[in-house]
Amino acid sequence: GGQQQRVALARALATSPGLLLLDEPLSALDAKVRVRLRHEIKDLQLKVGVTTIMVTHDQEEALTMADRIVVMNEGIIEQVGTPEDIYSRPESPFVADFVGTMNFLTGTAAGNGNVKLDGVELAAIGATDSAADGNPITICIRPEDIVTRGVTKDTDNAVPAVVETLEFLGSFYRVTLHTQGPERTEFRADFSINLMRDLDFFEGGNVVVSLPADHIRVYGEAVTHSDEAV
Question: What is the CATH architecture of 3-98?
Fold first, then answer.
């Protein structure tokens, strides 16, 4: 698998180009071949030293192969940055939604950089100070950033929740929960297999999780689903 892509790449490099453009080069391959070829392409690009622009809709390809990523939405650049910047510090709901898995939770601004989620006040380093008290905002946090080990109701940014479903995904569980307030806001958390062995989680059970302030992003605009390339 991947021989056609290897031949096409060799032909493109034979003329010693100053710039190499790759348009979805791995899209027709199965997952294991894609992983192997993306490492080969990156190693070859580093050896040859040619500047390369690659268009892809595959988030994993973009995060593992790029030095810098440009995320575009309907022809408009939403954000330019390193893979870590794009993933950890998305500057818009579009980028947050496009790269990785993200919880988008409806909340309200609480002033002083804080937000409220179903009546629970949370500190949020990524909150916008310009949001007036009571204004609707979107609270974003990635499932893997939610903490449960050692969390009590007295822990910073603790959120009492109810377990809805437990989904086994091989190396981790994706746990769907909802808040215990009247809004019953639903969100997802990813916990490792080793952690789940130590937890007494079951569907319908009451738990307490923490949404760390430094992992919360806050946006005032509505979230739209993304389908453009990076």
Answer: 3-Layer(aba) Sandwich (3.40)
